[in-house]
Amino acid sequence: MSNKLGKPVSQRQLRVGEMIKQALGMIFVKNEAKVPIETNGITVTEVKMSQDLKIAKAYVMPLGGKNEEEVILKLKEYSFLIRKVLSQKVFMKFLPKLL
Asked: What are the residues whose beta carbons fall under 8 Å from the beta carbon of 46, sequence distance 6 or more?
């Protein structure tokens, strides 16, 4: 497995990505971020980490694919709330920026 530049993805990137994926899934199921949309039907399919672990690109899908673009726009708009709740669940030196 490698990223766009052809560099192999490290075990650390995979491990941190999986940890953030699990945490985001629980945040959405419990609607802990208080985002003004229904989040318990959102599935986190994958989280890709940058080499320096400062950027996390989360791939999400609403249940049944309904209102996909609207849901993604709302999640991007309120990513600061999601990141705040994520900081209480994942303990890292630098919490990654969510994309």
From this structure: 17, 21, 58, 59
Phi/psi-derived region of residue 95, left when phi > 0, alpha when psi is between -120 and 50, beta in every other case:
beta
- What is the maximum alpha-carbon separation in the chain? 39
Tens of pLDDT along 43-72? 999 999 999 999 999 999 988 877 888 888
Beta pairing partners, 59: 46
**Pairwise CA distance, residues 89 & 19, whole Å:** 10
Contact by Cβ (8 Å): 60, 48 = no
Strand ranges of the sheet holding 97-98, from the earlier edge strand across to the other edge? 42-49, 55-62, 97-98
Contacts of residue 54, defined as CB under 8 A and 6 or more positions apart, other chains included, come to: 94, 96, 97
CA distance 68 to 61: 7
The amino acid present at 50, given as its one-letter code, is S
pTM of the model: 0.86
